Structure prediction request, 152 residues.
Amino acid sequence: MMERVDRKYKGLKRGLGVIPYVIAGIEELYLYNHPRIKFVIDGEEHTSEYGLAVKSNAGRFRFADPISLDDPSLLLCLFRHVKTIPFLRYWLSVLSGDPVNSEEIAYIRGKEIYVSSENPIPVHVDGEVIGKLPVKISIVEDGLNLLFPKVL
Prediction:
């Protein structure tokens, strides 16, 4: 989706906010052939069509609850099937600021996540494409001190 926004709607990102992402997301949902992705979380293997590693909610966008910057782990949201109403409902709830919990989503906490696939799937961080799989995501203990309000 992020690649599609950069490729087709880059000029619209600033002026229209989330609208280009919603359009690209719906296009990707039905046009993209979602391959299986392997996620290894602290040594435990899972497969899914889509995963989202979250460390905190982002302003008005809420990816999961409860989640906190002072939690020493990452939260991995694994979606069992992408081309479903629960997947679309999840993303609409993220945009509205009220994340939905669904049986279609597995929430797994861990400190190290290794993600791979037989396909060269794009990886994005904070809405920007940074490369392709495979990727290792981990918590760096005492890597950076952050000051943030108790309630975000």
